[in-house]
């Protein structure tokens, strides 16, 4: 059975292509922990997180929401150009319909406000880059700047003007410094925190949640910047210990054969390999300077 879809151009590399930092980095298994860190960080913007909690069923469909986010990242990274553009159009259409109310002013606002989209984008991309590098993926400072510049493409897909999106580490640091006065851990943020620590599961899976999920969520939280941990009000771990745990986890997960990991649905990387050939296989250690 072929993994390519009917109508997929055989040689279409998509938005990024195999030579990009994005293509190589997003195949790493630590992306799942990075994604949880992004959720913790995104929840600290009161207007952004209110837009989520008031317009989604994340409490009852958390796994579905996580998988849809992972599918969007996979499609925009490894899918064809047409598939990525379609995915972006769907996201923009949904966002245009969603509104929330500011509890302090009573103002109704759209979740597609550029400032909110920019926060969500920057928190996500920063989390991916931070966790991957801190866990031992061989990405240099130059790679990091290339990665950030590449993600002006994904920012455009969700409705942002690429010109306002930080395109290197200095610009991203300046953005976070400027937005920090707007951040707070309100009731919505603590609800997200509680949910990520104790997501609803089948009663038979409660022991697994305590043994496995709690450690994963805790590692994602521990990798947050100190100001974020201070806002949440939970104890800040020793940074060196967190780095050792991230590296140990990354080393362990990367021992799982890539072809085995890529079998997990929806098999974006395998589809890319079927479309483009062996050159499409992510291998971060082969990245140029």
Automatic annotation (TrEMBL):
Residues 23-254 form the ER-bound oxygenase mpaB/mpaB'/Rubber oxygenase catalytic domain. GO terms for molecular function: oxidoreductase activity. Signal peptide: none annotated. It comes from the Bacteria. InterPro entries: MPAB/Lcp_cat_dom. Pfam families: MPAB_Lcp_cat. This is ER-bound oxygenase mpaB/mpaB'/Rubber oxygenase catalytic domain-containing protein. The lineage of its organism: Bacteria, Bacillati, Actinomycetota, Actinomycetes, Kitasatosporales.
